[in-house]
UniProtKB/TrEMBL annotation:
Belongs to the ABC transporter superfamily. Spermidine/putrescine importer (TC 3.A.1.11.1) family. Part of the ABC transporter complex PotABCD involved in spermidine/putrescine import. Responsible for energy coupling to the transport system. Its EC number is 7.6.2.11. PROSITE patterns: ABC_TRANSPORTER_1 (PS00211), ABC_TRANSPORTER_2 (PS50893). GO terms for biological process: putrescine transport. It catalyses: ATP + H2O + polyamine-[polyamine-binding protein]Side 1 = ADP + phosphate + polyamineSide 2 + [polyamine-binding protein]Side 1. The lineage of its organism: Bacteria, Pseudomonadati, Pseudomonadota, Gammaproteobacteria, Enterobacterales. It is an enzyme of class 7 (translocase). This is Spermidine/putrescine import ATP-binding protein PotA.
Length: 314
């Protein structure tokens, strides 16, 4: 719909104060960069960048100036005469980005732009693309299924489910304060406990969960209805190893380590609780080899702070 290939059944598409709902795709100040880059194989780098400008029948001097500007922006001046097959994946991506920005669009659409790159190059290019977009001041809408990519590149994230927006917000807001179980599970890893409200206290809620022997205590002002099930979300990095049961008897669980995923700088412990429910805990590996650290088959006690949980009613 943004590009103009589908017509909205209701509402408007407004860009910079103008309704684009009935504007033809080729007349919209919008460009798109495809996952496959769609570079013309028979054209050089500079010819690819100049293509849209020639279609708009700009003056030769203006075309040359903008092509040089774009080559400089993406650091591809020395590759101007090369063809796409002579470039690396990252270089082809920069050419595609330069071509999409050459017409100075008011909105740039990116369709999973990093999907064809290996992980190390993808991580580097994410930051590079953000830097380029910030320098030209372009507004960008990017579609991606890579949550880490979205968190790295976006100023605002919109999570969609079945064609509807579930939550819109800044990356930190969506990660730390999800508004639904779907949002919590979609971004990052999360432990989720189902439960019912036991009591309301001045400093939060106490919730009983069938998966836990001890109650959950959550710093929350969420409106919870008695006898209506809720979900409590807890991120693995907020779970700690502990020896004693907390004084209030809340936010603690005992279980057996069934798997440890070593990821270099950190390890993720998968613990089976006595109820059978699995709980994940993420620990930095600076602690991994200290005496007394648990290993496979060990019984452990895990705990977490009351401000580490989020109560979800949907």
């Amino acid at each position: 719909m943004l590009a103009g290939f589908e017509q909205p059944t209701s509402g408007q598409i407004v860009l910079d104060g103008h309704d684009l709902s009935h504007v033809a795709p080729y007349q919209r100040p919008i460009n798109m960069m495809f996952q496959s880059y769609a570079l013309f194989p028979h054209m050089t780098v500079e010819q690819n960048i100049a293509f849209g400008l020639k279609q708009d029948k700009l003056a030769k001097g203006e075309i040359a100036s903008r092509v040089e500007e774009m080559l400089s922006l993406v650091h591809m001046q020395e590759f101007a005469k090369r063809k796409p097959h002579q470039l690396s994946g990252g270089q082809r991506q920069r050419v595609a980005l330069a071509r999409s920005l050459a017409k100075r669009p008011k909105l740039l659409l990116l369709d999973e732009p990093m999907g064809a790159l290996d992980k190390k190059l993808r991580d580097r290019m994410q930051l590079e693309v953000v830097d380029i977009l910030e320098r030209v001041g372009a507004t960008c809408v990017m579609v991606t299924h890579d949550q880490e990519e979205a968190m790295t590149m976006a100023g605002r994230i919109a999570i969609m489910n079945r064609g509807k927006f579930v939550q819109i917000g800044e990356p930190e807001e969506i990660y730390e304060h999800p508004t639904s179980r779907y949002s919590a599970e979609f971004i990052g890893s999360v432990n989720v406990f189902d439960g019912l409200l036991r009591e309301r206290q001045e400093d939060g809620l106490v919730i009983d969960s069938p998966g836990l022997k001890h109650p959950l205590k959550v710093d929350s002002d969420v409106s919870v209805v008695d006898n209506v099930p809720v979900h409590v979300a807890l991120r693995p990095e907020k779970v700690m190893l502990c020896e004693e049961i907390p004084a209030d008897g809340c936010n603690v669980a005992d279980g057996e380590v069934v798997h440890i995923a070593y990821l270099g700088d950190l390890s993720i412990y998968h613990v089976r609780l006595h109820s059978g429910q699995m709980l994940s805990a993420q620990l930095q590996n600076e602690h991994r080899y200290r005496k007394g650290m648990p290993t496979w088959g060990d019984q452990v006690r895990l705990c977490w702070d009351s401000d580490s949980c989020v109560v979800l009613t949907v």
